[in-house]
Structure to design on (493 residues):
């Protein structure tokens, strides 16, 4: 009986593990985001575009701080924990050492940043100092909450516990958010305070579920090994901040807060697409890690990675086709401009989701993270440069287009870098992928020509949904039912 339970909890089939993991991570992320997205129309009505724009800038600043103060350790913890499977004692010492570090170091760093920069930052962006202070305080809690329980639970593939922590966190944070923002009308302060309390709950509950026996043991060599892997990823992650969030900082210097709020709303509605792409990638990452030393797992990646490519593009197509009409139906007229921004943001997230595939080959399989930051820094520089050149004249539409361009640059650079550092780059079924792209292109063309977005929103939304379902059914037949028994001896087809 115990063996049957273990089999259900962790299937031996790679495909089953990928599906199981992807579903679990998607469910966890949907639990974290779905309620917030459902309540977003209520929140934005309460705070208004201008204050929502100020919130976007505060979150942008805290995200930059969290990127730096994570020290790249989330990826290091995940990879090292799996690789230390043959030495449980050393793995426990590793968890203990990293746990102490990520609780202490970010908290001390945030205190120093607040002491030196709180007033100048709040003055430059015209945001209340207490709002910036709460955003920074959230970093000191969010970093250990993400690295400690959640990354380790992923490495252990304890998906039920991962879901349990996620659901508890989102319920508590939603209660705080409704109470502070909607009922008490605390505005941006209530929003940031609710986020801080939600992260604190995630850390406490996550550590309890993790069940690690903490001691005072602190082994510097284990920490140095993790930092040697993780620190080169910090410029890489910070460059992602330049790609994903710096546009709000640039907008803050050239447009009023209401325009930032409109842009941020469009971006928030695109965020679930990026989250789903990351969740699917997290489900397949254990296979990438095992493929480092297992030729059979490497051979399986052809089908799995090809499906990942098509699923990512289909997700982008769905957001770009359905999102604008849905926004016009749900959100106040003050945010109507956001509908025109969403397709560009969806394109950017599509390129980001595709970038995860060569990134897995570089980091998880090859372990070559030393120079990966040069690609992301270049793409981030492209984004910032284009924004500085075009946002003052064209406003937030330029920021949306520039982000899509920058993510396309990132994808191209990572593909090229993969061929430099990976002995055997991930094989893909290029012919099937090309056919899938043609099907999606035809579907998009039909939606644009026959169901223009300016038409009645309900009719447009219904018609485009039908087109999307037809496209999805064709892709299912091509990629799921079709290659049940792939003949790998014939090469990519």
């Amino acid at each position: 009986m115990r063996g049957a339970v273990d089999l259900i909890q962790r299937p031996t089939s790679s495909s089953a593990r990928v599906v199981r993991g992807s579903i679990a991570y998607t469910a966890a992320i949907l639990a974290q985001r779905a309620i917030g997205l459902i309540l977003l129309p209520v929140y934005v009505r309460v705070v208004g575009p201008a204050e929502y724009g100020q919130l976007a800038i505060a979150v942008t600043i805290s995200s930059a701080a969290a990127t730096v103060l994570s020290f790249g350790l989330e990826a290091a913890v995940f990879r090292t924990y799996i690789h230390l499977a043959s030495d449980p004692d050393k793995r426990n010492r590793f968890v203990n050492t990293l746990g102490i570090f990520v609780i202490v170091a970010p908290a001390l760093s945030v205190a120093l940043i607040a002491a030196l920069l709180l007033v100048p930052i709040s003055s430059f962006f015209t945001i209340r100092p207490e709002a910036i202070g709460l955003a920074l305080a959230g970093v000191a809690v969010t970093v250990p909450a993400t690295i400690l329980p959640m990354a380790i639970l992923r490495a252990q593939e304890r998906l039920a516990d991962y879901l349990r922590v996620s659901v508890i966190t989102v319920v508590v944070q939603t209660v705080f958010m409704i109470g502070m923002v909607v009922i008490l009308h605390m505005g941006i302060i209530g929003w940031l305070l609710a986020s801080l309390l939600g992260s604190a709950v995630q850390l406490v509950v996550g550590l309890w579920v993790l069940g690690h026996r903490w001691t005072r043991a602190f082994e510097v060599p284990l920490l140095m090994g993790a930092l040697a892997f993780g620190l080169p990823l910090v410029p890489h992650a910070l460059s992602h901040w330049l790609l994903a969030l710096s546009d709000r900082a640039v907008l803050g210097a050239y447009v009023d807060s209401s325009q930032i709020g409109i842009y941020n709303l469009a971006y928030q509605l695109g965020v679930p697409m990026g989250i789903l792409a990351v969740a699917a990638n997290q489900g397949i990452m254990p296979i990438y890690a095992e493929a480092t030393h297992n030729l059979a797992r490497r051979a399986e990646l052809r089908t799995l990675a090809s499906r990942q490519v098509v699923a990512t593009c289909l997700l982008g197509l769905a957001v770009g086709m359905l999102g604008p009409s849905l926004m016009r139906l749900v959100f106040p007229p003050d945010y109507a401009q956001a509908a025109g921004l969403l397709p560009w943001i969806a394109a950017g997230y599509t390129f980001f989701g595709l970038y995860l595939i060569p990134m897995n080959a570089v980091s998880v399989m090859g372990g070559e993270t030393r120079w990966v930051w040069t690609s992301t820094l270049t793409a981030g520089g492209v984004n910032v440069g284009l924004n500085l050149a075009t946002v003052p004249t064209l406003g937030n539409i330029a920021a949306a287009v520039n982000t899509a361009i920058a993510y396309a640059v990132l994808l191209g650079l990572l593909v090229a870098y993969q061929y430099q550092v990976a002995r055997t780059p991930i094989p893909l079924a290029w012919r099937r992928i090309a056919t899938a792209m043609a099907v999606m292109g035809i579907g998009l063309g039909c939606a644009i020509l026959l169901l223009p977005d300016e038409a009645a929103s309900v009719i447009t939304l219904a018609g485009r949904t039908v087109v999307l379902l037809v496209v999805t059914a064709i892709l299912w037949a091509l990629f799921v039912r079709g290659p049940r028994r792939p003949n790998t001896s014939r090469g990519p087809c």
Summary: The chain has 17 helices and no strands. Residues 256-483 form one domain.
